[in-house]
Amino acid sequence: MDKSFLIQITNELYRLTLLFPKKEPLRYKMRELADDILAKLVENSSRPLFAELEVLDGFFEVAKNQNWVSPSEILKLQLDYSKVKLPTSPVGEQIPQNNNNTPPDARHQKILEVLKEKGKAQVWELKKIFPEITKRTLRRDFGHLLKRGAIERLGERNETFYQIKHL
């Protein structure tokens, strides 16, 4: 894992939690956990980080529901931390997932979360959340979710929206 990337997302977490209420324990717990993750990864510790990353992910979910900050900002940071969790090969190199940095299943899950929060969304809105992913890949993701029956498409061309499929 790239040290500068870890420092960047830790700084971003600090910036984001500045917007939490001052005496909110979640503010400090998230920062402490992010510091621990950074320290372990920078020192190349062999201790597993899965538990810490899962707890941090849970904290992100709680923070999303508090409306202290934009859910899309939390989601972006959550995605960045999910990159830290990617499986590694025996020699410690990351297993290639595809041409971008987010595994499709994790990205599909985050797309569904965004649609649950917003009600409906267009490709360009998801592009803001996933700046490293091309619009074409996002369209493929929507196509995959459509085939699974998880979402539905509304409109056409520039007026195309996607929403969670209501049964």
Structure characterization notes:
This protein is mostly helical and 167 residues long. It folds into 2 domains: 1-96, de novo design (two linked rop proteins), CATH 1.20.1440; 98-167, Arc Repressor Mutant, subunit A (Orthogonal Bundle). Helices cover 59% and strands 6% of the residues. It contains 7 helices and 3 strands, in the order αααααβααββ. It has a 3-stranded antiparallel sheet. The longest helix has 18 residues, at 25-42. The chain is globular and about 50 Å long. Residues 87-100 have low confidence and may be disordered.
CATH architecture descriptor text of the largest domain: Up-down Bundle
As a percent range, the share of helical residues equals 55-70%
Could you name the CATH topology of the largest domain? de novo design (two linked rop proteins)
Biggest pleated sheet: 3 strands, antiparallel
What is the strand and helix layout of this fold?
Elements: H1 3-17, H2 25-42, H3 50-64, H4 71-84, H5 104-118, E1 120-121, H6 123-129, H7 135-148, E2 151-154, E3 161-164
Antiparallel strand pairs: 1-3, 2-3
Helix pairs in contact: 1-2, 1-4, 2-3, 3-4, 4-5
